[in-house]
Write a structure and sequence with these properties.
The protein is mainly alpha-helical. 78% of the residues lie in helices and 0% in strands. The chain has 20 helices and no strands.
Length: 443
C-alpha cells in the first residue's frame, strides 16, 4: 500500500525549524516582497513557483547584507528546502552546506539555527537514501536542541521522530522504537493524551511495529491515533483518511480484507470531498483501495483505479517525478498479476529510470524497481535477466544496510533462488549458507 509521509502535513515542523526566517531588521521592500511571495507559495506546496522567489531572495540578501550574514544563511536554507521538495538534491545539498557553514561561523556551533541547518542537510541525505551521512547530522541536531531547550521540551519529540525515521528507513527497528516511545511520552506529558501531536507519535510507533510484523501491538496504537484525529478534527478531515489507511493496512497484513475494504472506501470518500477528485492525496486513497481489490482478485475494479491514480499523479507532478514512478510501479504490479508481463515490464522499466534519475543508483526505491523487474522476468522464464536485476537489488540493500543486517535476508534468498534457476547451484548454496549465518547471528 501507499501512504503519505506523515499523518499531518505539519507533523515534522519544529517551532524553531520554520522554513522561513521572517523579516530582517533593515530589510529592503524588494527583499521583503521576494521572501513573502516565496513563503506564501512554499506554504501552499507550490514549490516550482516558489523557486524563483527563493533564488531572488538569496541574491538580494547577499547584496544587502553580504554573503556571510546569518540572514543570507536563512535565505540559502529556504532555497535549499525548495530544491529538496522538488527532488533536486544536487542543487539543495550545497545550499544547505553553505547555510550551515555561515551559521556555525557567525552564531556558534550550538545555536538552534545550526541545528536547523543540520536537520535540513540530513533531510537531503535521507531523501537520497544516504543514511550514513544523515544519521550523524540528525544526532548532532538533536543534541543541540536538547542542550538548549531541555530534554522534555516538545520540540525534542520532533527531533526524536526524525531520527527514528532514519533508523526505520534502514530497517533498524530496535533503534527506532525507543525513540518514538520517548517522543510519545514527551508529547503526552506536554500536550495531554488526546493532542494531535500525540496522534502523530502513536501513528509513527504503530508503523514501526507494523514493519516488524507485530500487528497486535500496532493495532491499538493505530486505533487510538484514529480516534484522536476524528475527535479533534472531525470525521471528514483528510488526516482521518490517512489514519484509516494505516489501520486498513494492518488488517490487510493479517489477511482481513473484509475489514480493510470499508475503511479504504471511507478514506477515499473523505479525501474526494475534502480535497477534490484530482488531488494527489486522493490518488493515494484510490491506489490503496485498488490494492485491496487486487488482493481479492477483483481486477475489474482494481485496474481502473490504478489507472486513475496514475493519471492524477502524472497530471499533478509530471511524467518524470518519483511519485509518478510509484504509481507506475503499482499499475505494473497489477498487470503482472494478470500475467500481462510485457505491459508490466515496460512500466517497471519506466519507474526504474525515473527513480535512478531522482535518487541515484543506490536507493531503496531503485532496489524495489529492480526486484520487481527480476520477478517479471522470472515469470517469463527469462532467468538470466532476472538474476541480473536481483543481483543489483541485493547489492543496493547491502550497501545501505551492511553485509550482516537481518534486513538483507529476504533479498539474498531471492538472489539464491535466481542463481539456482540459472544453474549456478554452488553460488546459490553459498548464498543460502550466508543467509543462515546472518539469521543465527541475530537470533
Amino acid at each position: 500500500m501507499q501512504f503519505r509521509n506523515t499523518l499531518f502535513s505539519f507533523a515534522l515542523a519544529l517551532s524553531w525549524l520554520a522554513h522561513g526566517s521572517g523579516v530582517a531588521y533593515g530589510q529592503s521592500p524588494t527583499l521583503q516582497e521576494a521572501f513573502e511571495r516565496y513563503s506564501a507559495l512554499f506554504q501552499q506546496r507550490r514549490f516550482a513557483e516558489a523557486l524563483p522567489f527563493a533564488a531572488e531572495a538569496v541574491r538580494l540578501s547577499e547584496a544587502e547584507f553580504g554573503p556571510e550574514d546569518p540572514y543570507t544563511a536563512s535565505m540559502l536554507n529556504n532555497l535549499g528546502s525548495t530544491y529538496n521538495n522538488l527532488y533536486e538534491y544536487a542543487e539543495a545539498e550545497p545550499l544547505h552546506e553553505r547555510a550551515l557553514a555561515i551559521r556555525e561561523k557567525t552564531l556558534g556551533p550550538e545555536h538552534l539555527k545550526v541545528a536547523q541547518s543540520l536537520h535540513n542537510l540530513a533531510t537531503v541525505y535521507q531523501n537520497q537514501g544516504e543514511y550514513a551521512e544523515a544519521l550523524p547530522l540528525s544526532r548532532r541536531s538533536l543534541a543541540i536542541v536538547e542542550k538548549t531547550l531541555g530534554p522534555e521540551h516538545p520540540d525534542i519529540a520532533t527531533s526524536l521522530s526524525f531520527l527514528a525515521e532514519l533508523y526505520r528507513a534502514q530497517r533498524k527497528y530496535s533503534e527506532a522504537e525507543p525513540l518514538h516511545r520517548r517522543a510519545l511520552t514527551i508529547r503526552e506529558k506536554a500536550f495531554g493524551p488526546e493532542n494531535l501531536k500525540v496522534a502523530q507519535s502513536l501513528y509513527n510507533l504503530a508503523d514501526v511495529y507494523q514493519n516488524q510484523g507485530e500487528h497486535a501491538k500496532a493495532l491499538p496504537l493505530s486505533r487510538r491515533s484514529l480516534a484522536i484525529v476524528e475527535k479533534t478534527l472531525g470525521p471528514e478531515h483528510s488526516a482521518v483518511a490517512t489514519a484509516l489507511g494505516q489501520l486498513a493496512d494492518l488488517y490487510m497484513a493479517q489477511g482481513e480484507l473484509s475489514e480493510a475494504e470499508p475503511l479504504l472506501r471511507r478514506a477515499l470518500a473523505i479525501d474526494e470531498a475534502a480535497l477534490g477528485p484530482e488531488h494527489p492525496d486522493v490518488a493515494v486513497s484510490i491506489n490503496n483501495l485498488a490494492v485491496v481489490y487486487d488482493e481479492q482478485g477483483d481486477y475489474a475494479k482494481s485496474g481502473p483505479l490504478f489507472k486513475r491514480a496514475l493519471a492524477i499523479v502524472e497530471k499533478t507532478y509530471g511524467p518524470d517525478h518519483p511519485k509518478t514512478a510509484q504509481s507506475l510501479q503499482n499499475l505494473a504490479a497489477h498487470y503482472s498479476r494478470l500475467d500481462e508481463h510485457a505491459k508490466a515490464e515496460s512500466l517497471f522499466k519506466r519507474a526504474l529510470a525515473i527513480r535512478e534519475n531522482a535518487f541515484g543508483i543506490n536507493h531503496f526505491k531503485v532496489a524495489e524497481s529492480l526486484g520487481a523487474l527480476s520477478d517479471v522476468h522470472r515469470l517469463q522464464g527469462r532467468y538470466v535477466e532476472a538474476e541480473q536485476y536481483i543481483e543489483r537489488a541485493s547489492a543496493i540493500f547491502e550497501k545501505i544496510l551492511g553485509p550482516d543486517h537481518p534486513g538483507i535476508v529476504d533479498i539474498l534468498e531471492l538472489h539464491a533462488d535466481a542463481l539456482r534457476e540459472t544453474g549456478r547451484e554452488e553460488e546459490a548454496a553459498a548464498m543460502e549458507k550466508r543467509v543462515a549465518a546472518i539469521r543465527a547471528k541475530h537470533e
